[in-house]
């Protein structure tokens, strides 16, 4: 009888621990990052990777980059503009395939003698959740902006979640 009670307590402990771990995992927001658009592939990949690292290191996000077998999803289409409806629809499709709640899009443009980085976060329903932009002359200058842009993303997503 005593062994049965201990066994039942052990099973209940395992079940409760599993449920707690699952609910804790679910509380972390999931975000997919699409390789940014811009002047050259090396810069696009580097900047989107920096955002992925910063967001993952914050501990607030489960970051899915679409690498490996899922990277083929991203390479199926070429996008024309960060704000075009086709680009947004494809991003939402990718987010759903990656099973994430949000998707980070980015674009680098040359305006005169400066570069402009624009980022945008949308949810799988197509709602604009967050956005930020910065201007820079050299790509090395952008790193100082990434931390503040990531904090804005996290804050805006938290604000969006508290509305529902």
Write structural notes for this entry.
By secondary structure, the chain is of the alpha/beta class. It has one domain (29-163): 3-Layer(aba) Sandwich (Rossmann fold), CATH 3.40.50. Helices cover 51% and strands 23% of the residues. It has helices at 2-27, 41-57, 71-75, 85-98, 143-163; strands at residues 29-33, 61-64, 102-111, 114-123, 128-136. Strands 2-1-3-4-5 form a five-stranded mixed β-sheet, sandwiched between helices. Strand 3 and strand 4 (114-123) form a beta hairpin. It is elongated. The protein starts with a helix and ends with a helix.
Largest β-sheet summary: 5 strands, mixed
User: In sequence order, what are the helices and strands, one letter per element?
Assistant: HEHEHHEEEH
For CATH, the homologous superfamily is named as TolB, N-terminal domain
Mean pLDDT: 75
As a percent range, the share of strand residues is 15-25%
Structural class: alpha/beta
CATH fold-level topology: Rossmann fold
> How many distinct helices?
5
Percent range for helical residues? 40-55%
CATH hierarchy: architecture: 3-Layer(aba) Sandwich
Radius of gyration over C-alpha positions, nearest whole angstrom: 20 Å
Q: Count all strands and give the number.
A: 5
How many domains, in number, for the residues? 1
With strands numbered from the N-terminus, the spatial order across the biggest sheet is 2-1-3-4-5
pLDDT < 50 runs, ≥5 residues: 16-25, 68-79
Overall morphology: elongated
Keywords: Signal
Signal peptide: 1-21
Protein name: Curli production assembly/transport component CsgG
